[in-house]
Design brief:
Elements lengths: L5 H14 L5 H50 L10 H19 L27
Amino acid sequence: MFDLDPGKLLVIGIVALVAIPSKDLPRVLRTLGQATGRMRRMAAEFQGHFMEAMREAEIDALRKEVDAAKNVLRNPVELDAAFDPLIEARKQMTEAIAAQTRLSPKEPAQPATPEDTPDKDTLSDGDART
């Protein structure tokens, strides 16, 4: 605020030594220290009140969000269809079945029978499966 660097403080100190008599200097310094302490306490108190107000504002915002969520859950009529997991699962299964029938040939593939698969004994050494 006042931008007091060490050089300016030194000049102020020298002027104070010259302007203030030596017998009054301890009283002036004590008064200056007390005033500085009061200003710091006031600044800390202001900052504390400000931070408390910010926390209360955050809590109020969170409380409003929670109340809105409670209201949506209490009134199922207001729920969107996207929130219903059964409808979403049915939709996905229907899409998967439709995609499967579009991709599969007209005749369903026959499952492999044990007669169609070669035995381990009949495979050559290069074809052996482990």
